[in-house]
Write a structure and sequence with these properties.
- The structure is a single chain.
- This protein is an alpha+beta fold and 195 residues long.
- The chain is built from five helices and six strands, in the order H-E-E-H-H-H-E-E-E-E-H.
- The chain is 30% helix and 29% strand.
- The radius of gyration is 17 Å and the shape is globular.
Length: 195
């Protein structure tokens, strides 16, 4: 992805975290599908519009997944894989698979997948202390990882953008988001590095 696309995506993820912060703590996780398309009014399709589709997760039903998001996200990737059955009752109780399928099948010319992301609350264990944190984890179409972390009570989040390399300290959601990217990228799709 171009520098501009990475910068715009980072800004979008920061906005999502800031909106979550305004709503307060104790909110269910939120799954996000980020796509872009040519701006209809721009000549030659050089300018693009980004959209982040919010896919709420049913927090009460997520208890069916032993490891929470770390189990739900790979199950979603499997369900969205064209070689796998879509009928997965545990997953369907947590997220609207049909809505996601419709977003991915949108026939808008030039539409492309940019990233999958998840916004959730977590606990950070540091020197025998527990801290509540809100995280926004994302993986873009180039495999780059994004992590936005805000400690409860802190005025500003910390932003980290990593090149597409595996890190031992990466959250468990990162590999699952990378699998979602791989599963839902369309063959022959124009890649984000083209602009």
């Amino acid at each position: 992805m171009s520098f501009h696309a990475v910068h715009t995506l980072t800004g979008c993820l920061l906005h999502i975290e800031a909106s979550a912060d305004l709503l307060g703590w104790g909110r269910p996780p939120l799954l996000l599908l980020v796509q872009d398309r040519p701006t209809p009014s721009a000549p030659n399709g050089l300018r693009r519009q980004m959209r982040a589709a919010h896919l709420p997760l049913n927090d009460t039903r997520m208890g069916r997944y032993r490891a929470g998001l770390a189990d739900l996200l790979p199950d979603l990737a499997t369900a969205l894989d064209i070689n796998q059955p879509v009928a997965r009752p545990t997953l369907a109780a947590c997220v609207d698979i049909g809505f996601i399928t419709n977003l991915l099948a949108d026939p808008t010319p030039g539409l492309r997948l940019l990233a999958w992301a998840v916004c959730y609350e977590d606990v950070l264990v540091e020197s025998d202390d527990l801290h509540e944190v809100r995280r926004v984890d994302a993986v873009d179409a180039d495999g780059r990882g994004y992590q936005i972390t805000r400690l409860r009570g802190e005025p500003h989040p910390v932003v980290r953008v990593d090149d597409p390399v595996d890190h031992d300290g990466a959250p468990a959601t990162r590999s699952a988001l990378a699998r979602l990217i791989q599963t839902t990228s369309k063959p022959g799709q124009i890649t984000p590095t083209a602009s």
